């Protein structure tokens, strides 16, 4: 009987130890989940330049932009679209976003598209045709879960005919910036899973 008594105590002690270890693991997992950085999706798409759009007959010297007071002529203009999406479960009253262009590239204009009129975009650094910038600082107010902001930039490259270099998106706030598929990548992926039936034949785009 004494042996059985000590055996029971040992089993109870072992059970308590195991349950305590499992509890510690669960607590650690919950803490890691709560403390993880919010995921913010980002996408940058380069669209064809004005020369590519209108053809070789459109001379670079013909690209003129006016602010109502003065005309500005550019040899080559590119349209770049930037998207930023809150993929986390956290709401931001204000979210600061930095857009940094490659060396030699400058933006002469930026246009923001917000989900609705209650969502605002503020430029923290002035950007005009007369004062192009390679570094843009924006404040998104608010930036709630599932919100999507879009920006279109007119970019002048350092070398005519050359596409803009890589554009970096950053934020001083604690978050994890995740690359979203570009438009080209999304179309390519969709084409892979598309098939057409032509008579007895099945055509796929793999």
Description:
With 206 residues, this protein is of the alpha+beta class. It has a domain of 143 residues: Immunoglobulin-like, CATH 2.60.40.290. The protein contains three helices and 13 strands, in the order H-E-H-E-E-E-E-E-E-E-E-E-E-H-E-E. The protein has a five-stranded mixed beta sheet with strand order 6-9-4-1-11, with no helix packed on it. A hairpin with a 2-residue loop joins strand 12 and strand 13. 16% of the residues are buried.
Q: What are the SSEs and their pairings?
A:
Layout: H1 2-35, E1 39-46, H2 50-54, E2 64-66, E3 71-73, E4 78-86, E5 95-100, E6 106-113, E7 120-123, E8 135-141, E9 148-156, E10 168-170, E11 176-179, H3 183-192, E12 195-198, E13 201-204
Parallel strand pairs: 1-11
Antiparallel strand pairs: 1-4, 2-3, 4-9, 5-8, 5-10, 6-9, 7-8, 12-13
- State the secondary-structure class: alpha+beta
| Rg (CA only) | 27 Å
E-strand count: 13
Number of helices: 3
Please outline the major beta sheet: 5 strands, mixed
Which regions are unreliable across 5 or more consecutive residues at pLDDT < 50? 56-61
- Amount of helix: 10-25%
CATH uppermost class of the domain at 39-181:
Mainly Beta
| Cα distance spanning the termini | 73 Å
Q: How confident is the prediction overall: mean pLDDT?
A: 78
Strand content: 25-35%
List keywords for this structure.
single chain, 206 residues, alpha+beta, Immunoglobulin-like, 5-stranded mixed β-sheet, 4-stranded antiparallel β-sheet, 13 strands, 35% strand, elongated
């Amino acid at each position: 009987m004494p042996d059985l008594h000590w055996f029971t105590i040992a089993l109870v002690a072992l059970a308590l130890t195991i349950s305590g270890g499992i509890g510690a693991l669960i607590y650690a997992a919950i803490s890691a989940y709560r403390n993880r950085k919010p995921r913010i999706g980002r996408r940058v798409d380069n669209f064809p330049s004005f020369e590519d759009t209108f053809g070789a007959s459109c001379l670079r010297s013909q690209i003129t932009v006016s602010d109502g007071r003065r005309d500005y002529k550019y040899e080559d203009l590119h349209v770049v679209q930037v998207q930023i999406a809150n993929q986390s479960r956290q709401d931001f009253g204000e979210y600061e976003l930095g857009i940094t262009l490659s060396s030699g590239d400058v933006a002469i204009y930026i246009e923001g598209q917000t989900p609705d009129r209650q969502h605002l975009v503020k430029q923290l650094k002035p950007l005009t045709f007369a004062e192009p910038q390679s570094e843009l600082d924006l404040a998104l107010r608010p930036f709630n879960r599932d919100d999507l902001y879009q920006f279109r930039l007119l970019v002048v490259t350092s070398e005519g005919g050359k596409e803009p270099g890589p554009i970096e998106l950053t934020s001083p706030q604690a978050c994890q910036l995740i690359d979203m598929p570009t438009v080209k990548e999304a179309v390519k992926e969709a084409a892979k899973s598309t098939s057409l039936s032509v008579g007895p034949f099945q055509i796929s785009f793999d």
